[in-house]
Amino acid sequence: MNIIAWIILGFVAGAIAKMIYPGTQGGGWLSDILLGVIGAVIGGSIMTLIQTGTLQLTAASLSIPGVIVAIIGAMIAIFIWESMMRRRV
Questions:
Q1: Neighbour-count burial for 67-86, b at 16+ CB within 10 Å, e otherwise
Q2: Domain residues for 53?
Q3: pLDDT at site 1
Q4: 80: Cα within 13 Å, side-chain hemisphere
Q5: How many separate domains does the chain show?
Q6: Which end of the chain, C or N, has fewer beta carbons within 10 A?
C-alpha cells in the first residue's frame, strides 16, 4: 500500500476510533493519522493471526473491512496508550 493510502486509512480510522472510544483523547489530525496507521498494523496482525494461526506483521487494506479492522486496532492502541499513561502518573 502506498504512503497516500496509509495516510488516508490512518486519518479515517484514527478519527473514527477517537469518536467511538469513551473519554477525551488529546491531539489533532496528525495524532489521528499516527493512531490509525498503528491501528491498521495492530488490526491487520490480529486478523492474520485469527485467519491463519500465525503471527505476521501485516496491515489492513484500504477497503471497508480494512477500515473496520483498522478502527478496532486503533481503539486497542488508544486503550494501551491510556493504560501506559495512567501508570506513569
A1: bebbbbbbbbbbeeeeeeee
A2: 3-88
A3: 56
A4: 10
A5: 1
A6: C
